[in-house]
Backbone:
């Protein structure tokens, strides 16, 4: 009997050591993965914010401002493949200001100008991939032909979207300081009246702002504002000028990937990526 246990011990000992090493490697591998996800400095959070205008196959649309329906579908499919989860601007700012939790690989998908094709083309595709968006509407275009109607905006809201203001008339505010009250405050009040919601954020028309304009966005009751830029990291100091990366029409998926963190064509699908290394080893046997 003793001899039998000795044999078992001699087999088991190296096995236990081997398993322990594999477990340690798996754990360190996983923690390295987690820390690589958030490459932000203290007080910063990495959340790409995409900016779209039109999602349309209309050839008359300016290609910079119109992403084709097929390209948009491919981009959403790719985001799903990379393991992104959509959040709204309010979710992002609530995380920055209040510490609310965020999902892994968060992304904000925004649309400026309130074109009708956001509802007709982008919304069904995003529903298919489980994404919500944030749409910035121009208050005096509400219910105009070619733009989103109150009922459509209501449906987007019911599906978890955020609706923000993009001004009253889409005027460049840095050139027209006298208009800021109407453009920033009145547009918010009109949208809130029309939709029965509290508007949280503002998108600067043409992405331009100065100190006066951004301070008025704060004074007139908004809690965040979005511009245009190249950054994907945000902090308390950038809440009134959140950088959005514009997705222009006609770009391929490789160029789309360059706008984003956490993309890699060579990795298997994201859920598998988070399996521990020992599982991948077992699969090789
Ligand atoms: Zn605009």
Residues:
């Amino acid at each position: 009997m003793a001899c039998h246990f000795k044999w078992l011990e001699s087999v088991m000992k190296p096995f236990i050591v081997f398993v322990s090493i594999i477990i340690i490697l798996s754990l360190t591998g996983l923690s390295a993965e987690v820390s690589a996800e958030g490459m932000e400095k203290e007080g910063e959070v990495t959340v790409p914010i995409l900016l779209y205008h039109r999602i349309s196959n209309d050839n008359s649309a300016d290609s910079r401002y119109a992403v084709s329906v097929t390209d948009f579908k491919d981009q959403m499919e790719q985001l799903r493949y990379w393991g992104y989860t959509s959040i709204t601007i309010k979710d992002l700012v609530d995380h920055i200001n209040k510490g609310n939790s965020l999902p892994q690989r968060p992304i904000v998908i925004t649309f400026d100008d309130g074109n009708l094709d956001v509802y007709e083309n982008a919304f069904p595709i995003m529903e298919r991939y489980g994404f919500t968006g944030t749409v910035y509407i121009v208050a005096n275009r509400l219910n105009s032909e070619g733009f989103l109607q109150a009922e459509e905006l209501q449906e987007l809201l019911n599906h978890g979207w955020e609706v923000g203001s993009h001004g009253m008339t889409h005027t460049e505010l840095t050139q027209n300081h006298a208009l800021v009250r109407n453009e920033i405050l009145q547009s918010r009040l009109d949208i809130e009246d029309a939709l029965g919601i509290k508007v949280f954020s503002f998108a600067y028309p043409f992405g331009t702002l100065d100190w006066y304009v951004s301070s008025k966005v704060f004074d007139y009751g908004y809690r965040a504002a979005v511009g245009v830029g190249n950054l994907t990291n945000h902090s308390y100091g950038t809440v009134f000028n959140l950088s959005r990366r514009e997705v222009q029409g006609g770009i391929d998926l490789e160029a789309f990937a360059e706008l984003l963190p956490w993309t890699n064509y060579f990795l298997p699908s994201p859920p598998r990526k988070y399996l521990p290394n020992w599982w991948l080893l077992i699969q090789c046997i």
